[in-house]
Design a protein that fits this description.
mainly alpha
Amino acid sequence: MGDETSSQAQWFWDNTTEVWNAILNHPFLVELEAGTLPDEVLRFYFEQNLQYVDAVYRCRLVAAAKAPDKETFDLLTRDWNLEPSDERQGDLLVSFGGDPDNLPPMAPACRGYTYHMWYNALDGRTIDWLASFVACPWTYDLIGEQVSGNIGEERRESWMEYYGSKIHHDLMDDFRSAVDRLTVGLDQDDLNGLLEKWRLGMRYEWMFWDDAYHMRSWPV
C-alpha cells in the first residue's frame, strides 16, 4: 500500500484524486453552487439517480450475502437512513417537472455505472462491490460538505442538506472502515485490481454528472 499509516480506503482515494478534481470542477456542480443550473438539467439528473439508487439497494443485498464478517453484513443490510432522502428526491423530481412513476430509460452513464456495480456484486466478493461503489458516497460527502448551506434555493438546498449532514459523514466512516477491514492481508496485485474498480466507479461518477449536464441520451 505504500504508506502503512494510511487506511486502504484512503490509498484508493489518494490514487484517484485526478478524477475527484474533475468531478469537483464539473460545470454541473459549479453551476449548482452558483444557483445557475437549469431546472431541466436537474430533472434529468433525478430521473437517472432514482434508477441508480434502486440498483445500489439491490446490489448491496447481493454483496451482503457474501459478507465475510457480521460487521460488514450488518452495515450492508441496515437502514442507511437514505429513505427520507430518496423520498425527497422523488418529490424534487416532481418539483422540476418529472414523474417518478414514469422514468425514462437509463442514460449511457447510468446504464454503464449500474452494470459495473452489478458485475462486481454478482461475480466478485463483497470487497469488489465496495470498491466499485464507495467512491460514490465519498464524493457526495465532500460535495455536500462544501455546498450545503451555500446554494440559496430551497429545492437544491434540500437535496444537498443530507450529504452535508453528520448522518452521512458517519455512514461514510463506516464504508471506509469496511474497505479497510476487508482488504487486510490482500496482496498488491489484488489491491491494484481493486484500485481499478474504484477508479472506474469514480469515472462513472464524473460521467453521471456529465450526462445530466448535457441531458445526454443514446445517440442511436
